[in-house]
Amino acid sequence: MANTYSQITIHAVFAVKGRENIITKDWRDNLHEYISGIITNKGSKSLAVGGWKDHVHILFGLPVTISISDFMSAVKASSSGWINEQKFVKGKFEWQAGYGAFSFARSQRDIVIKYIMNQEEHHKTRTFKEEYLKMLNDFEIEYDEKYVFEFYEE
């Protein structure tokens, strides 16, 4: 697209359907690497991919040629298909419907990257529910709890 320029940094979060703790350490890094490849193949710049047993965080530069919803649909569909092809889990793997997407300034990238890459340490003291609701509140996003991810006591 001629004469179109942007710098849109998005931090997105999405969770395993049923919030099962099934993204295990033995294949988690491979998943994050695969998702990074999806991001790159969609014409974006992958800045960080990380997560924990039941969710994933991604930080990327959103291209001007695709909406966030189409981008996230592609990331989730491709990664769940790959997980199923690799047979990392028993039965069919699925992501929960929806995602959270938060924008950050270029000057905040290093802070968000560090946050995403330290998920294991972070979740020693905070549940995913606490983490996600804090993000919604920090960004002053109004939400109805019945439409937020399915949360189970951890």
Topology:
Elements: E1 9-15, H1 25-41, E2 45-51, E3 55-61, H2 68-86, E4 100-104, H3 109-117, H4 119-122, H5 128-138
Antiparallel strand pairs: 1-3, 1-4, 2-3
Helix pairs in contact: 1-2
Can you characterise this structure?
- The structure is a single chain.
- With 154 residues, this protein is of the alpha+beta class.
- The protein has a single domain, classed as Transposase IS200-like (Alpha-Beta Plaits).
- The chain is 39% helix and 17% strand.
- It contains 5 helices and 4 strands; from the N terminus they run E-H-E-E-H-E-H-H-H.
- A 4-stranded antiparallel sheet has the order 2-3-1-4, with helices on both faces.
- A hairpin with a 3-residue loop joins strand 2 and strand 3.
- Helix 1 crosses helix 2.
- The chain is globular and about 50 Å long.
Number of strands: 4
State the end-to-end distance.
Answer: 46 Å
Mean pLDDT: 92
CATH class division: Alpha Beta
Q: How helical, in percent, are the residues?
A: 25-40%
Q: What does the radius of gyration come to?
A: 15 Å
User: Any guess at the CATH architecture?
Assistant: 2-Layer Sandwich
What is the SS-derived class? alpha+beta
Number of domains: 1
Assembly type of the shown chains?
Answer: single chain
Largest sheet: 4 strands, antiparallel
Strand order of the largest sheet: 2-3-1-4
Q: Classify the fold: give the CATH topology.
A: Alpha-Beta Plaits
Low-confidence stretches: none
Shape: globular
**How much of the residues is beta strand, in percent?**
15-25%
What labels would you give this structure?
Alpha-Beta Plaits; alpha+beta; 154 residues; 4-stranded antiparallel sheet; single chain; 4 strands
